[in-house]
Amino acid sequence: MPEADRTQEFLELLTHHDRALGVYVYSLVQDPHDADDILQQTKMILWRCFDQFETGTHFLAWARKTAFHQVLTYRRQKKREAMPLSDDILELLHDEVAKLNDTSDRRRGALRSCVAKLPVAHRQLVALRYYEDMEIDGVAERIRSTAGAVYRALSRVRMNLLTCVEKELKLEGAGA
Amino acid sequence: MKPADQFRLLELSERYADQKLTAEEIAALEAELRDSAESRAFFAKALHQRAELCFDDSWHAQAAAEEKVTSRPVWWRYVATAAAAACVTFGFVWLQTSRDGSVATLVRAQQCQWAGSSLPTVEGARLKPGMLDLIEGLAVLRFDSGAELVLEAPATVEVLDAMNCKLRRGTLVAEVPPQAKGFSIDTKDAKVIDWGTKFGVSADDDGKYMVRVIEGLVEVEDKHSPGSQKLEKGQGVDRGWTRSQLQPAVGDMPEPSRWQPATVMDAGDGWQAITTAFGRGRDSYIQSGSKPTPEFGKHPFVRVKWTTRKLELNRKGYLAFDLSQFSGRQIEDAELVLTIEPSELGFASFVPDSTFAVYGVIDEKEDTWAEGDLSWQNAPAHDPSQAAFNMPVASKVKLLGKFEIAQGINRGTRQLRGKALADFLASDTNQIATIILCRETDETADSGLVHAFATKENGTRSAPVLRVKLK
């Protein structure tokens, strides 16, 4: 295959799976800066090793495996304190996250409509925490509450979202 | 799995993300995840959803848009991504999607002074959500959505995200390209939603606000009345803003006036100073139009403006100094000092660096004007039928000098000193000197800034001062 076509193919695949791959890495790596570094590194490696990828096989699975390897490398190199869970636990989580990640596109649509259904105050809480990346203490200050109360409130909202997403996915699966 | 366990794991996942788990908690969590497939699946689900919420902000853009107008998704992040993805030739540049939480860039900071802002204020700085407090100058913010705001000092703005900001007080002009439609500016009492356009907003802590559309379409929601109002090019709403600017509370200010220079000061070295508050001194201004404007004399400022766009909005300042204190003495040198009054009338964005001309009225018969009576029809050295609205009648005046005020500057003083001024004062015979203040710079769009200078009625800033050196 000519070089230009191969480049085109890579970019198309990566663009298509870019978000899912990002969500995967963010699932395992909690610090967004670390996660971005790992993502960046992973994409470079994917491109360098694209020769080894067989067209028609599962690109996202291949990309995730590469990323997981990077996560472990990163953890070993310097970030053990930021990633306290051991390698074998991370691997168990990788298996679980990968399953969810394969249905990432559907989950995303469901999550979006579930967020839209939240009461305004809950949506604001979600926005402060996940969109503005605020620390719990900051959120607590902003909504004049305590850190403990914010954790509890967030858990309630998150539970609501998890249940809602499952429901939406089921409805979708039933052809509704 | 019991709901209580699910809650517990959800909270653990949040604290884990914050790196707040103790060593014991980590050990217990590891054991649980290793032993229980159910816990593992749920914890993974919690982490995955958390990642979706953190990594992918589309839910927020949509939620924010739906809060404004139902069923109007804002996809700017995807527009940007798609555009970036189209640039295949740029190779890997697009892979570096920054995610540091910044939402805007401070692209220009022109002669800016900042108060305690929570955000960086150097040109080129990337801005996360936070507060910008501009004391002086013009600053341009470009949001990642494409919306561009020009802040006009004094202004306090809170950057919320790429599609939202809050104007706490002050004035700004917004230019919003099509991809940032839905960009919203919140004020205390109103929300202004942009539909791809250019418009100006002023607002204050107490809720008053003003919106003026220069191009396109804007939607204004007043928080005290249901529904919203759509404004098109040239239209505006004004909830108390202009009234508060035009009819300042003069006599009944709740706070006592600040220190004012004594009416005659001995500055030493032969210099003496008087203000327009001394003796028969006066300060007022005139505005083109047929209406008499006796209240202008009581305003705490004189307004000065030249515009060829709205002929009825031209203004010229008039000052009279009582020179009786210096009669019989020879004036060797002189200086006129004017204090700029922050004017919130009009947008500084539409008035470039401005030149002001100061004229002395030669014909002493014209010195008798009164503050309560001065008008466009009867003002000294003025011809209402003259085409050049920003000029006095040339034969009746002498040019004393010019000074400049840079765009966006609304504080400080301007001095005019020189032989022309000293000679003009020295040639006086009736102990009154009338001075006319004119702007020579036109606005580039209507609704441009009206410059203002403090008068003797001003409680906080110095009245016009005339300093003279006597032989």
Overall description:
The complex is a heterodimer of chains A (176) and B (471). Chain A is mainly alpha-helical. In chain A, 78% of the residues lie in helices and 0% in strands. Chain A has helices at residues 3-28, 32-48, 59-77, 87-102, 104-117, 120-131, 136-142, 147-173. In chain A, α1 (3-28) packs across α3 and α3 runs antiparallel to α4 (87-102). The longest helix of chain A has 27 residues, at 147-173. Chain A is globular, with a radius of gyration of 19 Å. The N and C termini of chain A lie far apart (43 Å). With 471 residues, chain B is α+β, with helices and mostly antiparallel strands. Chain B is built from seven helices and 24 strands. In chain B, strands 1, 2, 3, 4, 5, 6, 7, 8, 9, 10, 11 and 12 form a twelve-stranded mixed β-sheet that branches. A five-stranded antiparallel β-sheet of chain B has the order 13-14-24-18-21. In chain B, strands 15-17-22-19-20 form a five-stranded antiparallel β-sheet. In chain B, a hairpin with a 5-residue loop joins β8 (198-203) and β9 (209-215). In chain B, α1 crosses α3 (37-55). Chain B starts with a helix and ends with a strand. Mean pLDDT of chain B is 81; it is low at 68-98 and 247-262. The chains are: A mainly alpha (176), B alpha+beta (471).
Question: Helix and strand succession of chain A?
Answer: HHHHHHHH
So how many helices of chain A?
A: 8
Mean pLDDT of chain A: 86
The pLDDT mean of chain B sits at 81
Please tally the β strands of chain A and state the result: 0
Rg of chain A is 19 Å
